[in-house]
Design a protein that fits this description.
Length: about 650
Amino acid sequence: MDAYKALRDYAAIGDCHGHALVAANGDVDWCCLERHDQDPVFCCLLDQARGGTLRLTPQAVVAQERNYLAGTNMLVTRLRTETGVLELLDFMPVGRRLGNGPHDYVKLVVPGWLVRRARVLEGELGVDLRYRPSLAFAAKPVELLARDGGIGGDCLPTLFCSHPLAVAGGDTVSATLRLCAGECLDLVLAARYTITDSPLRLLDAMQATTQAFWQEWSAYNRYRGPYQAAVERSALSLKLMSFASTGAIVAALTTSLPEEIGGSRNWDYRYSWLRDSCFALYALSALGYSGEAERYVDYLSRCVRLTLPDIRIMYGIQHERFLPEVTLDHLEGYAQSRPVRRGNAAFAQRQIDVYGQVLDLAVLYEAMGGKLAEEDRRVLRTFVDVALRQWQEPDCGLWEMRDAPKQHVHGKMMSWVAMDRALRLFGANPAWERARETIVEQVLSQGCDSDGALLQAFGSASVDAATLLAPALGFPLSPAGLEATLRRVEAELADGAFLKRYAADDGLEGGEGAFLICSFWWVDALLAAGRGEQARALFEKLLACANDVGLYAEEYDVGSERFLGNMPQAFTHLALIGSAVNLELFARGGAAALAGSYADRARRAVGATFGPRGMLASLRQSGTIHRLSSSAASIMLWP
């Protein structure tokens, strides 16, 4: 670990197309400029020696602090030395399509811009600048040359700097600069551009437009509970993980960050899982957002039409159907945790829970006032047909195990959801009704222990944290069954406030940390059981383990207090939002306020703000939803 920064040291910025991770000392160690899933221009995160980075660091830093500008994904870092203080502002420009007006003076091919603005707040200090990009995950050689007023190369972005930089070939540009109080230094990394003058002159406009975009989006957040800051940061993180060109939402912004230091459980999460995306949209809908759901419904429909009659559990962010998994053996991996992977073989797995997940989202969408096109409804009928055929079959489960398929209880519960939501969407159907009843009978007879606790799979002796979702799904589990499930999960999977996913063998070598989403599911299950004080105390312990800017990875190592797995992780942030909303519902109406489906809870959550007409109708009346939906399509499309 000595050569690698702790994962909790990283903060994320982005433009709803690409993203970057910025370390607490200001190093940009990971960056995908134009697409979340592209080969990174910086991948020092996965190989300190080979991977590229962008650094602008004062010499002899003695203290550092940072924060996001309020309501934005724009990062401010202050670095103090013995002789001065340097402030960095990092962001990726994002904004609306501009009309014909006084600002229509430049044409940019975007997205793909990373901006760093440095300013000396006091004193005088020396600053070391280093620019070293990478190609093909650092597998191909790089040669930097001066061009067009900046420094670039074949298939590389161009770096522009407000101070002169010399380049004489090679793969790295280095410089040491002396800056005094009040002096500024600007850097722009541009993937593509069509201007003849330096983009440095556009930075004031970029900064103002980007700040306005994020703060406007944040202002539509309708959560007003005691955890406002954490909920807002989680919502902004989910928005950061969206891909504006199509409406896709990625599971995380990184690949191959290990679930165990030195281990091999390292996966590429820069794709759109149906399950993860549906969970994310539940969370955003409960906060009053719906433009993202409209865009995702269109994305999902387009993806599924490409693979029917098969339905994949995940797709690429530009509707890609095949995401073959390859290992990049030339990289040592984060903290020497090999292998580094690109692509994810799970795209070919069968996970029967996704059919119910999507149908549940459709119910939520309509409950909030959305209208499904007839073509979308035909696609959803396909989901019902597949769920009806497959619900009795074994699958790989939501945790994507790589051993023999099993009769996972969570998958059966989600098949029940598929039948239940199909009846809500399309009306009475005897076959669906029979299947719904039979699933409950089988789960309660084959998927429970002698005390009624839900197990991981039929015939299993182990439990699974995913069964804590039963009350959130509206699955007819008795109060005694919920209490029994809670007792076993707490006894076998808990370590303080943190839960492992399961303890059973999964066909993979090595171990893993506690899964943070599972702990938030624990909060929700406690609320459903009426244990409000315990749930709130657990929730606040989980809030305390965020990093200094409110971000979470996928997992947590209790002993070392390290983050593990890819980050920022959509699963964790969406679950935080869900638990915060559920705590407010519980405070207003007790466990009864949590009953039913995600759609039922979302309507209750937004009802306090929008009343009985529902969220979408109220937003449309005010004009909000028109602006948000149109901006989703025009993000980062400057004239």
